[in-house]
């Protein structure tokens, strides 16, 4: 006890843990000096002793102790930056622990099932912001569509990008943008770029002239009809293979060249890539043009 009658830390934490029936205390190695003192208090008060484990600190890239000067430090800050809770838990779990395989993607349930204290590393783990962002992208793209759309809607409404009546648009935009971003906040700029896409200027350019004059309206009408009938939506729902098959069939019907592009889209029709992406050279990458 202090001279003013206030209890000291080691006494408080021991009584607190004992009355809550804490069975395992896992904490940073900085607490090693406190462990002996607390063990003596447990013994003196007749409390059952928990099992103690001490893990290495999380280090900054320069191998110093992680602190405020290295960036965001609170959960709230990371949430505002666009990080998902499950991605943060996944990444933090891998700082000094692994399941013995090369797998790095874990759900909360996976971690509960696989975690064992004996696989925790003794050396300090370096916090890598780039790796955390990549991890967040993996979790973002694995979200069920309804949860992903809600996250986008909540974000866009809070920033004023989206109105209450535009939830249907959010669904379409979320599916389009998710493959090229790692953070929820990354979608803001991409969406604004998409909404302000200068279609008229694109079609009026010298690059587009030959494409526009080559019966572009017939192709556009065909795409609209396929969308209205549900044919296009069905092809997209079948994934990459279904989309690939539909694009080839549509291109053959309208006597149009099929352009192969990198990424999940895989194939797109010339000249529709000019309409969608503002590029007529057959080498477009969708999100590069949106971003």
Automatic annotation (TrEMBL):
Residues 2-134 form the Glutamyl/glutaminyl-tRNA synthetase class Ib catalytic domain. InterPro entries: aa_tRNA-synth_I_cd-bd_sf (IPR008925), Glu/Gln-tRNA-synth_Ib_cat-dom (IPR020058), GluQ/Sye (IPR049940), Rossmann-like_a/b/a_fold (IPR014729). Coiled coil: none annotated. GO terms for biological process: glutamyl-tRNA aminoacylation. Keywords: Aminoacyl-tRNA synthetase, ATP-binding, Ligase, Nucleotide-binding, Protein biosynthesis. GO terms for molecular function: ATP binding; glutamate-tRNA ligase activity; tRNA binding. The keyword Nucleotide-binding applies. The keyword Ligase applies. One of its GO terms (cellular component) is mitochondrion. PANTHER family: GLUTAMATE--TRNA LIGASE, GLUTAMATE--TRNA LIGASE, MITOCHONDRIAL-RELATED. Belongs to the class-I aminoacyl-tRNA synthetase family. Glutamate--tRNA ligase type 1 subfamily. This is Glutamyl/glutaminyl-tRNA synthetase class Ib catalytic domain-containing protein. It comes from Aegilops tauschii subsp. strangulata (Goatgrass).
